[in-house]
Specification:
Chain lengths: ~210, ~210
Amino acid sequence: MEQRLAPNTKLSEARLCETFGVGRMRVRRALLLLSSQGIIELQSNRGAYVACPDKSEAHDVFAARMLIEPPLVRQLAQSSDEIDLTVLIDHIALENAARAQNERTEIIRLSGEFHTKLAQATGNKFIFRMMRELVTRTSLIVGLFGSSENASCPDDEHSNILKAIVSHSPELAEQLLISHLNHIQSGLDMEARQEPQDDLAAILGSD
Amino acid sequence: MEQRLAPNTKLSEARLCETFGVGRMRVRRALLLLSSQGIIELQSNRGAYVACPDKSEAHDVFAARMLIEPPLVRQLAQSSDEIDLTVLIDHIALENAARAQNERTEIIRLSGEFHTKLAQATGNKFIFRMMRELVTRTSLIVGLFGSSENASCPDDEHSNILKAIVSHSPELAEQLLISHLNHIQSGLDMEARQEPQDDLAAILGSD
DNA sequence: CAGATGACGATTGTTAACAATCTTTGTCAA
DNA sequence: TTGACAAAGATTGTTAACAATCGTCATCTG
Protein backbone atom coordinates (compact mmCIF):
# COMPACT_ATOMS: atom_id res chain seq x y z
CA MET A 1 0.00 0.00 0.00
CA GLU A 2 3.02 2.15 -0.12
CA GLN A 3 4.26 2.30 -3.68
CA ARG A 4 7.94 1.61 -3.29
CA LEU A 5 8.81 -0.77 -6.03
CA ALA A 6 9.78 0.08 -9.54
CA PRO A 7 7.23 -1.21 -12.02
CA ASN A 8 8.43 -4.17 -14.05
CA THR A 9 10.69 -5.20 -11.21
CA LYS A 10 10.89 -8.95 -11.17
CA LEU A 11 9.89 -10.56 -7.89
CA SER A 12 11.72 -13.85 -7.74
CA GLU A 13 10.27 -16.37 -5.34
CA ALA A 14 13.61 -17.33 -3.88
CA ARG A 15 14.51 -13.75 -3.13
CA LEU A 16 11.19 -13.03 -1.49
CA CYS A 17 11.55 -16.19 0.57
CA GLU A 18 14.81 -15.17 2.14
CA THR A 19 13.81 -11.51 2.37
CA PHE A 20 10.79 -12.29 4.49
CA GLY A 21 12.05 -15.52 5.94
CA VAL A 22 9.02 -17.54 4.94
CA GLY A 23 8.48 -20.65 2.90
CA ARG A 24 7.84 -20.66 -0.80
CA MET A 25 4.20 -21.57 -0.25
CA ARG A 26 3.47 -18.36 1.58
CA VAL A 27 5.26 -16.35 -1.05
CA ARG A 28 3.38 -17.97 -3.88
CA ARG A 29 0.08 -17.44 -2.10
CA ALA A 30 0.87 -13.78 -1.55
CA LEU A 31 1.89 -13.35 -5.17
CA LEU A 32 -1.35 -14.93 -6.34
CA LEU A 33 -3.38 -12.56 -4.19
CA LEU A 34 -1.41 -9.54 -5.37
CA SER A 35 -1.94 -10.59 -8.96
CA SER A 36 -5.66 -10.96 -8.36
CA GLN A 37 -5.63 -7.34 -7.24
CA GLY A 38 -3.71 -6.34 -10.31
CA ILE A 39 -0.75 -5.10 -8.31
CA ILE A 40 1.60 -7.57 -9.91
CA GLU A 41 1.43 -9.61 -13.06
CA LEU A 42 2.08 -13.34 -13.06
CA GLN A 43 3.61 -14.67 -16.25
CA SER A 44 3.50 -18.41 -16.63
CA ASN A 45 6.86 -20.02 -16.00
CA ARG A 46 8.44 -16.60 -16.08
CA GLY A 47 7.75 -15.09 -12.70
CA ALA A 48 5.99 -12.15 -11.09
CA TYR A 49 6.49 -8.56 -12.22
CA VAL A 50 5.29 -5.37 -10.61
CA ALA A 51 2.40 -4.03 -12.64
CA CYS A 52 3.31 -1.27 -15.03
CA PRO A 53 0.14 0.64 -15.89
CA ASP A 54 0.20 2.38 -19.22
CA LYS A 55 -1.46 5.55 -20.37
CA SER A 56 -4.71 3.81 -21.22
CA GLU A 57 -4.92 2.07 -17.87
CA ALA A 58 -4.30 5.32 -16.08
CA HIS A 59 -7.15 6.84 -18.03
CA ASP A 60 -9.44 3.97 -17.06
CA VAL A 61 -8.58 4.25 -13.39
CA PHE A 62 -9.48 7.90 -13.30
CA ALA A 63 -12.61 7.29 -15.34
CA ALA A 64 -13.68 4.65 -12.85
CA ARG A 65 -13.01 6.93 -9.91
CA MET A 66 -14.84 9.74 -11.67
CA LEU A 67 -17.80 7.42 -11.94
CA ILE A 68 -17.83 6.24 -8.35
CA GLU A 69 -16.45 8.91 -6.10
CA PRO A 70 -18.70 11.86 -6.95
CA PRO A 71 -21.90 9.96 -6.07
CA LEU A 72 -20.07 8.62 -3.06
CA VAL A 73 -19.24 11.97 -1.50
CA ARG A 74 -22.63 13.29 -2.49
CA GLN A 75 -24.22 10.48 -0.56
CA LEU A 76 -21.93 11.04 2.38
CA ALA A 77 -22.85 14.70 2.46
CA GLN A 78 -26.52 13.82 2.44
CA SER A 79 -26.37 11.36 5.28
CA SER A 80 -23.39 12.53 7.26
CA ASP A 81 -25.35 12.73 10.49
CA GLU A 82 -25.56 9.01 11.04
CA ILE A 83 -21.92 8.60 10.12
CA ASP A 84 -18.75 8.79 12.13
CA LEU A 85 -16.39 11.23 10.46
CA THR A 86 -13.97 11.73 13.34
CA VAL A 87 -11.59 9.29 11.67
CA LEU A 88 -11.41 11.60 8.69
CA ILE A 89 -10.93 14.70 10.79
CA ASP A 90 -8.05 13.01 12.58
CA HIS A 91 -6.73 11.93 9.23
CA ILE A 92 -6.62 15.49 7.94
CA ALA A 93 -4.54 16.36 10.99
CA LEU A 94 -2.13 13.56 10.14
CA GLU A 95 -1.86 14.81 6.59
CA ASN A 96 -1.08 18.33 7.75
CA ALA A 97 1.56 17.06 10.14
CA ALA A 98 3.24 15.04 7.40
CA ARG A 99 3.04 18.00 5.05
CA ALA A 100 4.55 20.29 7.64
CA GLN A 101 7.55 18.01 7.94
CA ASN A 102 7.74 17.57 4.19
CA GLU A 103 7.78 13.78 4.38
CA ARG A 104 7.00 13.06 0.78
CA THR A 105 6.47 9.32 1.13
CA GLU A 106 4.11 9.76 4.02
CA ILE A 107 2.21 12.50 2.26
CA ILE A 108 1.54 10.30 -0.74
CA ARG A 109 0.46 7.41 1.41
CA LEU A 110 -1.90 9.51 3.48
CA SER A 111 -3.31 11.26 0.44
CA GLY A 112 -4.47 7.96 -0.96
CA GLU A 113 -5.68 6.79 2.39
CA PHE A 114 -7.98 9.77 2.67
CA HIS A 115 -10.04 8.56 -0.23
CA THR A 116 -10.04 5.04 1.10
CA LYS A 117 -11.32 6.21 4.46
CA LEU A 118 -13.93 8.27 2.71
CA ALA A 119 -15.25 5.07 1.20
CA GLN A 120 -14.92 3.28 4.50
CA ALA A 121 -17.09 5.92 6.11
CA THR A 122 -20.04 4.68 4.10
CA GLY A 123 -19.89 1.49 6.11
CA ASN A 124 -20.36 -0.41 2.88
CA LYS A 125 -17.84 -3.22 2.55
CA PHE A 126 -18.07 -3.38 -1.21
CA ILE A 127 -17.69 0.30 -1.81
CA PHE A 128 -14.71 0.24 0.49
CA ARG A 129 -13.04 -2.61 -1.34
CA MET A 130 -13.61 -1.08 -4.73
CA MET A 131 -12.20 2.26 -3.71
CA ARG A 132 -9.22 0.66 -2.02
CA GLU A 133 -8.35 -1.12 -5.21
CA LEU A 134 -8.73 2.02 -7.27
CA VAL A 135 -6.67 4.05 -4.83
CA THR A 136 -3.92 1.46 -4.82
CA ARG A 137 -3.80 1.58 -8.57
CA THR A 138 -3.84 5.34 -8.50
CA SER A 139 -0.80 5.27 -6.24
CA LEU A 140 1.03 3.09 -8.73
CA ILE A 141 0.17 5.55 -11.46
CA VAL A 142 1.09 8.64 -9.50
CA GLY A 143 4.38 7.01 -8.61
CA LEU A 144 5.00 6.36 -12.29
CA PHE A 145 3.80 9.51 -13.96
CA GLY A 146 3.67 12.01 -11.15
CA SER A 147 6.08 14.87 -11.23
CA SER A 148 8.20 14.93 -8.11
CA GLU A 149 6.75 18.04 -6.50
CA ASN A 150 3.01 17.95 -6.72
CA ALA A 151 2.76 14.17 -6.76
CA SER A 152 0.58 14.36 -3.69
CA CYS A 153 -2.87 15.83 -3.65
CA PRO A 154 -2.98 19.64 -3.73
CA ASP A 155 -2.73 21.20 -0.34
CA ASP A 156 -6.04 21.38 1.48
CA GLU A 157 -8.51 20.09 -1.07
CA HIS A 158 -9.12 17.15 1.18
CA SER A 159 -9.97 19.46 4.00
CA ASN A 160 -12.41 21.41 1.86
CA ILE A 161 -14.13 18.28 0.66
CA LEU A 162 -14.54 17.07 4.21
CA LYS A 163 -15.93 20.45 5.26
CA ALA A 164 -18.50 20.31 2.48
CA ILE A 165 -19.53 16.87 3.66
CA VAL A 166 -19.98 17.73 7.30
CA SER A 167 -21.88 20.88 6.39
CA HIS A 168 -24.33 18.85 4.29
CA SER A 169 -23.52 20.36 0.94
CA PRO A 170 -23.80 17.46 -1.51
CA GLU A 171 -23.40 19.51 -4.67
CA LEU A 172 -20.42 21.37 -3.34
CA ALA A 173 -18.75 18.25 -2.04
CA GLU A 174 -19.29 16.51 -5.36
CA GLN A 175 -17.94 19.46 -7.30
CA LEU A 176 -14.89 19.78 -5.09
CA LEU A 177 -14.11 16.12 -5.47
CA ILE A 178 -14.42 16.28 -9.24
CA SER A 179 -12.01 19.21 -9.30
CA HIS A 180 -9.72 17.32 -6.97
CA LEU A 181 -9.58 14.27 -9.21
CA ASN A 182 -8.97 16.49 -12.20
CA HIS A 183 -6.12 18.19 -10.41
CA ILE A 184 -4.48 14.89 -9.63
CA GLN A 185 -4.90 13.68 -13.17
CA SER A 186 -3.66 16.86 -14.79
CA GLY A 187 -0.64 16.78 -12.48
CA LEU A 188 0.53 13.67 -14.27
CA ASP A 189 3.02 13.69 -17.07
CA MET A 190 1.83 10.91 -19.28
CA GLU A 191 4.93 10.76 -21.41
CA ALA A 192 8.08 10.61 -19.33
CA ARG A 193 7.78 7.90 -16.75
CA GLN A 194 10.22 8.10 -13.92
CA GLU A 195 11.54 5.18 -11.93
CA PRO A 196 11.02 5.12 -8.19
CA GLN A 197 13.66 3.42 -6.13
CA ASP A 198 13.38 0.01 -4.59
CA ASP A 199 12.20 -0.90 -1.16
CA LEU A 200 10.67 -4.27 -0.75
CA ALA A 201 8.98 -4.51 2.60
CA ALA A 202 6.34 -1.86 2.07
CA ILE A 203 4.02 -3.18 -0.55
CA LEU A 204 4.16 -6.77 0.60
CA GLY A 205 3.09 -6.20 4.15
CA SER A 206 0.29 -8.68 3.77
CA ASP A 207 2.00 -12.05 3.98
CA MET B 1 -20.78 -17.63 -12.23
CA GLU B 2 -23.79 -19.79 -12.09
CA GLN B 3 -25.00 -19.92 -8.52
CA ARG B 4 -25.54 -23.60 -8.02
CA LEU B 5 -24.14 -24.36 -4.64
CA ALA B 6 -25.93 -24.09 -1.35
CA PRO B 7 -24.37 -21.43 0.84
CA ASN B 8 -22.44 -22.82 3.76
CA THR B 9 -21.69 -25.95 1.78
CA LYS B 10 -18.30 -27.17 2.78
CA LEU B 11 -15.85 -27.56 -0.08
CA SER B 12 -13.38 -30.20 0.99
CA GLU B 13 -10.13 -30.20 -0.87
CA ALA B 14 -10.05 -33.94 -1.38
CA ARG B 15 -13.53 -33.98 -2.87
CA LEU B 16 -12.75 -31.13 -5.24
CA CYS B 17 -9.57 -32.89 -6.29
CA GLU B 18 -11.28 -36.04 -7.41
CA THR B 19 -14.28 -34.15 -8.79
CA PHE B 20 -12.14 -32.15 -11.16
CA GLY B 21 -9.29 -34.60 -11.43
CA VAL B 22 -6.63 -32.08 -10.53
CA GLY B 23 -3.97 -31.89 -7.87
CA ARG B 24 -4.47 -30.31 -4.51
CA MET B 25 -2.33 -27.35 -5.49
CA ARG B 26 -4.70 -26.28 -8.23
CA VAL B 27 -7.65 -26.67 -5.91
CA ARG B 28 -6.07 -24.64 -3.17
CA ARG B 29 -5.12 -21.94 -5.62
CA ALA B 30 -8.66 -21.77 -6.95
CA LEU B 31 -10.08 -21.65 -3.43
CA LEU B 32 -7.77 -18.80 -2.54
CA LEU B 33 -8.88 -16.82 -5.57
CA LEU B 34 -12.55 -17.49 -4.87
CA SER B 35 -12.09 -16.36 -1.30
CA SER B 36 -10.40 -13.16 -2.47
CA GLN B 37 -13.54 -12.49 -4.49
CA GLY B 38 -15.70 -13.17 -1.48
CA ILE B 39 -17.43 -16.10 -3.14
CA ILE B 40 -16.24 -18.53 -0.53
CA GLU B 41 -14.91 -18.11 2.97
CA LEU B 42 -11.69 -19.75 4.06
CA GLN B 43 -11.57 -20.71 7.71
CA SER B 44 -8.17 -21.55 9.03
CA ASN B 45 -7.66 -25.25 9.50
CA ARG B 46 -11.38 -25.76 8.97
CA GLY B 47 -11.89 -25.57 5.26
CA ALA B 48 -13.71 -23.56 2.63
CA TYR B 49 -17.39 -22.73 2.82
CA VAL B 50 -19.63 -21.15 0.24
CA ALA B 51 -20.30 -17.58 1.27
CA CYS B 52 -23.60 -17.05 2.97
CA PRO B 53 -24.51 -13.37 2.66
CA ASP B 54 -26.81 -12.04 5.34
CA LYS B 55 -29.44 -9.34 5.23
CA SER B 56 -26.95 -6.57 5.86
CA GLU B 57 -24.59 -7.75 3.14
CA ALA B 58 -27.46 -7.95 0.70
CA HIS B 59 -28.32 -4.36 1.54
CA ASP B 60 -24.73 -3.28 0.96
CA VAL B 61 -24.53 -5.00 -2.40
CA PHE B 62 -27.59 -3.23 -3.67
CA ALA B 63 -26.43 0.06 -2.19
CA ALA B 64 -23.14 -0.32 -4.03
CA ARG B 65 -24.88 -1.15 -7.28
CA MET B 66 -27.23 1.76 -6.77
CA LEU B 67 -24.18 3.96 -6.47
CA ILE B 68 -22.36 2.69 -9.54
CA GLU B 69 -24.81 1.49 -12.12
CA PRO B 70 -26.98 4.60 -12.57
CA PRO B 71 -24.00 6.81 -13.52
CA LEU B 72 -22.75 3.94 -15.62
CA VAL B 73 -25.79 3.62 -17.84
CA ARG B 74 -26.10 7.38 -17.94
CA GLN B 75 -22.61 7.58 -19.30
CA LEU B 76 -23.27 4.78 -21.76
CA ALA B 77 -26.35 6.58 -23.04
CA GLN B 78 -24.34 9.74 -23.51
CA SER B 79 -21.52 8.16 -25.46
CA SER B 80 -23.18 5.19 -27.06
CA ASP B 81 -22.06 6.17 -30.53
CA GLU B 82 -18.46 5.25 -30.05
CA ILE B 83 -19.44 2.01 -28.35
CA ASP B 84 -20.23 -1.43 -29.66
CA LEU B 85 -23.59 -2.50 -28.30
CA THR B 86 -24.25 -5.41 -30.65
CA VAL B 87 -23.11 -7.78 -27.94
CA LEU B 88 -25.90 -6.53 -25.75
CA ILE B 89 -28.49 -6.74 -28.48
CA ASP B 90 -27.50 -10.31 -29.12
CA HIS B 91 -27.62 -10.92 -25.41
CA ILE B 92 -31.21 -9.74 -25.17
CA ALA B 93 -32.06 -12.25 -27.84
CA LEU B 94 -30.43 -14.98 -25.79
CA GLU B 95 -32.40 -13.93 -22.76
CA ASN B 96 -35.66 -14.04 -24.66
CA ALA B 97 -34.87 -17.46 -26.03
CA ALA B 98 -34.12 -18.80 -22.59
CA ARG B 99 -37.25 -17.20 -21.23
CA ALA B 100 -39.34 -18.68 -23.99
CA GLN B 101 -38.15 -22.15 -23.06
CA ASN B 102 -38.57 -21.40 -19.37
CA GLU B 103 -35.05 -22.49 -18.50
CA ARG B 104 -34.86 -20.98 -15.06
CA THR B 105 -31.16 -21.58 -14.48
CA GLU B 106 -30.22 -20.07 -17.79
CA ILE B 107 -32.49 -17.09 -17.25
CA ILE B 108 -30.84 -16.26 -13.94
CA ARG B 109 -27.39 -16.61 -15.40
CA LEU B 110 -28.14 -14.42 -18.39
CA SER B 111 -29.90 -11.83 -16.28
CA GLY B 112 -26.77 -11.27 -14.27
CA GLU B 113 -24.62 -11.37 -17.36
CA PHE B 114 -26.58 -8.53 -18.92
CA HIS B 115 -25.38 -6.15 -16.26
CA THR B 116 -21.85 -7.44 -16.53
CA LYS B 117 -21.85 -6.89 -20.26
CA LEU B 118 -23.26 -3.44 -19.71
CA ALA B 119 -20.18 -2.65 -17.66
CA GLN B 120 -17.95 -4.33 -20.22
CA ALA B 121 -19.36 -2.07 -22.90
CA THR B 122 -17.68 0.88 -21.25
CA GLY B 123 -14.37 -0.67 -22.23
CA ASN B 124 -13.12 0.16 -18.78
CA LYS B 125 -11.41 -2.82 -17.19
CA PHE B 126 -11.94 -1.61 -13.66
CA ILE B 127 -15.58 -0.81 -14.03
CA PHE B 128 -16.02 -4.23 -15.57
CA ARG B 129 -14.31 -6.02 -12.73
CA MET B 130 -16.22 -4.16 -10.08
CA MET B 131 -19.56 -4.85 -11.68
CA ARG B 132 -18.72 -8.49 -12.23
CA GLU B 133 -17.99 -8.88 -8.56
CA LEU B 134 -21.18 -7.14 -7.56
CA VAL B 135 -23.24 -9.16 -10.02
CA THR B 136 -21.74 -12.40 -8.77
CA ARG B 137 -22.62 -11.45 -5.24
CA THR B 138 -26.08 -10.44 -6.34
CA SER B 139 -26.56 -13.88 -7.87
CA LEU B 140 -25.63 -15.47 -4.56
CA ILE B 141 -28.18 -13.28 -2.83
CA VAL B 142 -30.95 -13.84 -5.35
CA GLY B 143 -30.32 -17.55 -5.07
CA LEU B 144 -30.65 -17.30 -1.31
CA PHE B 145 -33.51 -14.90 -0.84
CA GLY B 146 -35.22 -14.86 -4.20
CA SER B 147 -38.68 -16.33 -4.43
CA SER B 148 -38.77 -19.12 -6.98
CA GLU B 149 -40.86 -17.38 -9.64
CA ASN B 150 -39.54 -13.89 -10.14
CA ALA B 151 -36.00 -14.67 -9.12
CA SER B 152 -34.85 -13.48 -12.48
CA CYS B 153 -35.08 -9.90 -13.62
CA PRO B 154 -38.58 -8.77 -14.61
CA ASP B 155 -39.44 -9.52 -18.18
CA ASP B 156 -38.15 -6.92 -20.61
CA GLU B 157 -36.69 -4.28 -18.36
CA HIS B 158 -33.30 -5.11 -19.76
CA SER B 159 -34.58 -4.50 -23.23
CA ASN B 160 -36.04 -1.13 -22.25
CA ILE B 161 -32.83 -0.05 -20.59
CA LEU B 162 -30.88 -0.94 -23.68
CA LYS B 163 -33.31 0.93 -25.88
CA ALA B 164 -32.93 4.03 -23.74
CA ILE B 165 -29.18 3.76 -24.09
CA VAL B 166 -29.09 3.39 -27.85
CA SER B 167 -31.57 6.24 -28.26
CA HIS B 168 -29.32 8.53 -26.20
CA SER B 169 -31.67 9.10 -23.29
CA PRO B 170 -29.38 9.28 -20.27
CA GLU B 171 -32.05 10.33 -17.78
CA LEU B 172 -34.49 7.69 -18.95
CA ALA B 173 -31.86 4.96 -18.95
CA GLU B 174 -30.75 5.92 -15.49
CA GLN B 175 -34.30 5.97 -14.19
CA LEU B 176 -35.14 2.62 -15.76
CA LEU B 177 -32.09 1.07 -14.22
CA ILE B 178 -32.90 2.42 -10.78
CA SER B 179 -36.39 0.99 -11.05
CA HIS B 180 -34.92 -2.26 -12.26
CA LEU B 181 -32.61 -2.59 -9.29
CA ASN B 182 -35.46 -1.72 -6.97
CA HIS B 183 -37.61 -4.42 -8.56
CA ILE B 184 -34.93 -7.01 -8.05
CA GLN B 185 -34.38 -5.97 -4.48
CA SER B 186 -38.05 -5.83 -3.58
CA GLY B 187 -38.50 -9.28 -5.12
CA LEU B 188 -36.36 -10.70 -2.36
CA ASP B 189 -37.76 -12.21 0.77
CA MET B 190 -35.22 -11.27 3.37
CA GLU B 191 -36.53 -13.60 6.05
CA ALA B 192 -36.99 -17.11 4.73
CA ARG B 193 -33.87 -18.25 3.00
CA GLN B 194 -34.27 -21.22 0.73
CA GLU B 195 -31.62 -23.75 -0.16
CA PRO B 196 -30.66 -24.25 -3.77
CA GLN B 197 -29.53 -27.71 -4.76
CA ASP B 198 -25.99 -28.76 -5.40
CA ASP B 199 -24.10 -28.80 -8.65
CA LEU B 200 -20.41 -28.39 -8.45
CA ALA B 201 -19.01 -27.74 -11.88
CA ALA B 202 -20.69 -24.43 -12.53
CA ILE B 203 -19.19 -21.97 -10.12
CA LEU B 204 -15.71 -23.38 -10.28
CA GLY B 205 -15.21 -23.17 -14.00
CA SER B 206 -12.07 -21.15 -13.53
CA ASP B 207 -9.51 -23.76 -12.54
C1' DC C 1 -27.05 -39.24 33.70
C1' DA C 2 -24.29 -34.96 32.57
C1' DG C 3 -20.13 -33.22 31.70
C1' DA C 4 -15.24 -33.48 31.11
C1' DT C 5 -11.30 -35.83 29.19
C1' DG C 6 -8.51 -38.14 25.96
C1' DA C 7 -7.59 -40.84 21.86
C1' DC C 8 -8.64 -41.58 17.13
C1' DG C 9 -9.77 -40.23 12.39
C1' DA C 10 -10.15 -36.83 9.02
C1' DT C 11 -8.87 -32.53 7.03
C1' DT C 12 -5.94 -28.72 6.30
C1' DG C 13 -1.21 -26.52 6.39
C1' DT C 14 3.64 -27.03 5.34
C1' DT C 15 7.87 -28.67 3.63
C1' DA C 16 11.02 -30.64 0.55
C1' DA C 17 12.24 -33.08 -3.38
C1' DC C 18 11.27 -33.59 -8.30
C1' DA C 19 9.84 -32.19 -13.07
C1' DA C 20 9.22 -28.77 -16.58
C1' DT C 21 10.24 -24.49 -18.53
C1' DC C 22 12.82 -20.51 -19.49
C1' DT C 23 17.19 -17.80 -19.73
C1' DT C 24 21.81 -17.49 -20.32
C1' DT C 25 26.15 -18.71 -21.93
C1' DG C 26 29.36 -20.78 -24.81
C1' DT C 27 30.53 -22.85 -29.17
C1' DC C 28 30.57 -23.43 -33.95
C1' DA C 29 29.84 -22.30 -38.65
C1' DA C 30 28.70 -19.09 -42.34
C1' DT D 1 31.52 -10.53 -36.63
C1' DT D 2 27.06 -12.39 -36.51
C1' DG D 3 23.79 -15.83 -36.33
C1' DA D 4 22.07 -20.25 -34.99
C1' DC D 5 22.29 -24.05 -32.01
C1' DA D 6 23.06 -26.65 -27.77
C1' DA D 7 24.17 -27.38 -23.16
C1' DA D 8 24.16 -25.62 -18.48
C1' DG D 9 22.14 -23.00 -14.90
C1' DA D 10 18.42 -20.87 -12.72
C1' DT D 11 13.54 -20.32 -11.87
C1' DT D 12 8.91 -21.75 -11.69
C1' DG D 13 5.30 -25.52 -11.49
C1' DT D 14 3.93 -29.87 -9.47
C1' DT D 15 3.72 -33.76 -6.61
C1' DA D 16 3.86 -36.43 -2.59
C1' DA D 17 4.95 -37.20 2.00
C1' DC D 18 4.87 -35.18 6.61
C1' DA D 19 3.18 -32.15 10.46
C1' DA D 20 -0.40 -29.73 12.78
C1' DT D 21 -5.02 -28.80 13.80
C1' DC D 22 -9.84 -29.77 14.36
C1' DG D 23 -14.06 -32.61 15.08
C1' DT D 24 -15.90 -36.85 16.85
C1' DC D 25 -16.66 -40.50 19.70
C1' DA D 26 -15.75 -43.39 23.37
C1' DT D 27 -14.59 -43.55 28.11
C1' DC D 28 -14.29 -42.03 32.67
C1' DT D 29 -15.69 -39.46 36.77
C1' DG D 30 -18.67 -36.73 39.64
